[in-house]
Every structure is written in C-alpha cells, then in structure tokens.
C-alpha cells in the first residue's frame, strides 16, 4: 500500500495511509488532501475548525464561544448550530465561512470560532 501513496510532505515518512479523502502520516500526525501535491503551495487551502477538523462546503458547525454582533443586543450564543456552510477564499479580515444564521441572516464567520458538528 505504501508504494502507491506519496510520502508525507512534512517528515518524508513512507508509512502514509488513507482516511476518507485525506492522507495521514502515523509518525508525525500530518493530514493532507490526496489531491494536494507536495510542494504545491498554490491552489485550495484546507480550512480547519477550532479543534483541527477539516471543513468542507455543506458542513454543519457549532459556534464555540459567544460572538458579539453589531446591532444585536444578544449576539450569537455559544452552542448555536449553523447548517450548510460555504467556504470562501477572499473573506474580509480572516473570515472564511459564509453562512446564514437563524435570527441573524447572512454573515461571515472565522473558522477559529466554530467546531464541526
């Protein structure tokens, strides 16, 4: 199996294995997409949540801390579920998730304040 899979781009280990759509290195713990080429810094970048899970379009996430929203007295409370997210590359000020939140409407979130549900 290790003959057909590429070595780890971090530590060059040849013991990589597949886990779903990702390739995993058991020696250093590095995970990467099988479509990523080592040394290819351009193109799609993986967006991870606050605990390190890789996010994809259509995922459901949970807000991990209370967020202030301009014009709202309560804000978005921790534990709020957000369904059907869209990942964006050119978000403003580090915001990389585009979504609709019930009671607030369309907005952008940072991946560092959500956890994959």
| Rg on CA atoms, Å | 17 Å
> Average pLDDT across residues?
85
The percent range for strand residues is 15-25%
Number of helices: 0
Major β-sheet strand ordering: 1-2-3
- N/C terminus separation: 32 Å
Identify the CATH architecture of the largest domain.
Roll
CATH class of the largest domain: Mainly Beta
Largest sheet: 3 strands, antiparallel
Low-confidence stretches: 37-42
Whole-number tally of structural domains: 2
| CATH fold-level topology of the largest domain | SH3 type barrels
CATH superfamily of the largest domain: SH3 Domains
According to DSSP, the number of beta strands is 9
H/E element string?
EEEEEEEEE
Keywords: Hydrolase
GO molecular function: hydrolase activity
InterPro entries: YjdM, YjdM_C, YjdM_N
Domain Protein YjdM N-terminal: 4-33
Would you summarize the structure shown here?
Residues 4-33 form the Protein YjdM N-terminal domain. It comes from Streptomyces monashensis. With 117 residues, the protein is an all-beta fold.
Describe this protein's structure.
The chain folds into two domains: 1-40, N-terminal domain of TfIIb (Single Sheet); 60-116, SH3 Domains (SH3 type barrels, Roll). It starts with 16 loop residues before the first strand and ends with a strand. The chain has 117 residues and is an all-beta fold. It contains no helices and nine strands. The radius of gyration is 17 Å and the shape is elongated. Mean pLDDT is 85; it is low at 37-42. The chain has strands at residues 17-19, 22-24, 31-33, 61-63, 81-82, 86-87, 97-101, 105-109, 114-116. The strands form three sheets. The chain has a three-stranded antiparallel sheet, with no helix packed on it. Strands 5-4-9 form a three-stranded antiparallel sheet, with no helix packed on it.
